[in-house]
Amino acid sequence: MEHNQLNNNKPYDVCIVGAGVAGATMAAYLGKHGKRVAIVERNLKERDVIIGELLQPGGVQYLQKMGLKFFLDDIDAQPVTGYDIILDGKDFVIPYPHQNGEPTGYGFRNGKFVRNMRKYILSLSNVTVIEGRVTELPEKNDDIQGVRFLAKGAEKEETIHAPLTIVSDGALSKFRDKLSKPDNKVTGFFLGILLKDCILPYPGHGHLVMGNHSPFVLYPVTSDFTRVLIDFPGEKPPKLDTGLKKYLTETFLPPMPQQVKPAFLNAVEEGNFKMFPNHRLPASPVLKMGAVLLGDSLNMRHPLTGGGMTAAFADVKNLGDNLLAIKDFQNRKQINTAVKKFYDTRHLGNQTINILADGLYGVVNNPGLRVAFFEYVNRGGKYADEPIAILAGINKDKKLLKKHFIGLASYGTKNKLKSAGIKEIGDTYGMVKAAVRIITPLLLSEKPDLATRVMLKTLIKGDTVISDINLRI
Ligand SMILES: Cc1cc2nc3c(=O)[nH]c(=O)nc-3n(C[C@H](O)[C@H](O)[C@H](O)COP(=O)(O)OP(=O)(O)OC[C@H]3O[C@@H](n4cnc5c(N)ncnc54)[C@H](O)[C@@H]3O)c2cc1C
Fold it and tell me: Does residue 220 sit in the same domain as residue 334?
């Protein structure tokens, strides 16, 4: 992919670090509206990654609102219209909510999606795309001045000056420490395998497979290929050796849907595995003159629910709109106010995505709660429609999410109490405790108001009974 020449005589309004999902979309949104943008990306070659391959309907809607839905064109993107939820071989399907005749998410290869973004920004005369590695964010009096970078093939570093630097250098960000107080945890790893000519039980659906094994998801990414992402919990990745093939076959072939088994066996035999760490990183930005964090460098959640790109697009739209409203881009105060407004309001666009992602990951890994979740959602009606609308990134109602989370724990408890012997009564109590332990820190990390904060801190300290929870939330 050709890049444009840097022209240092040209003043830039913003300079962006990283042309991945968030950075390239931001360059496109600002560039499309006439802003002068310089963006530095360390590798412009089409990437072959396992991240960001299922875009939820809410993310599609953000692209549409920004006039960028054409990023999905001509990449063999596969419409995804809902989820098949599988537990120990039993399953049911929940469709995404239908809104304005656009119920779909899309599965695709991330490299092709990002290639479309980059192709578009390269076509804009007011956007300069540079292939190079950003090495430093130069500062003067606690004020970021732009970026220093080493262009591909160059021997000397160069500097770009801009009143605002948008840092979107992804999950393994080099610069987040400078602009936030990150509490970044690796919660495990996803092993990604591409399955050729795989027949899914429900074509055009995401599949979440739960059971007495770590969870995995399946979804179509092209007309020929299906992605499977298998969770490996823990801080260390599994070794990519022959032992892994044996483990995958023994552990994950049995719960694989019947139709998928031949393609899975072939792919394991071929052994083309990729691995990526899963992080949990609540946003904790520090307001600093001249710079802002965006995308995974600011905030991450478990990828089980495929919410990362939707959260990133919510942020691009929010920050982009604030920046586009600025009349004088050389007025640093106005830029700082726009950035502050973004940091203060962004949780409204993505708190439910974040809480659901890590909350559901906790639920599917708890034997009692995953049965409760399966039975609760399987009731259909609002018990299925509302949670799937939250997962789709369409419904952003945090109270509703809390209600369903607690609802599933109490439903599971009631069911368990009905069938439990005296010995299992303790298990039911344990299930409620587990639910509270999962949801409380997640709610606390998403800008709760003071009353909720006090209530949640009390909940997590004390042992709580279900009636307390129903009463208070
Ligand atoms: C295993 C896994 C699966 C996922 N699956 C999904 C999914 O199905 N759906 C979904 O919505 N989300 C998913 N996500 C999350 C999603 O991929 C991210 O939220 C999204 O890619 C964030 O975009 P970003 O721009 O912040 O980072 P990226 O897309 O990673 O972009 C960062 C860019 O910065 C560049 N860069 C880094 N350092 C420098 C530097 N020093 N100089 C110049 N350039 C630099 C990189 O080359 C890269 O191009 C998944 C995440 C994981 C871990």
Answer: no
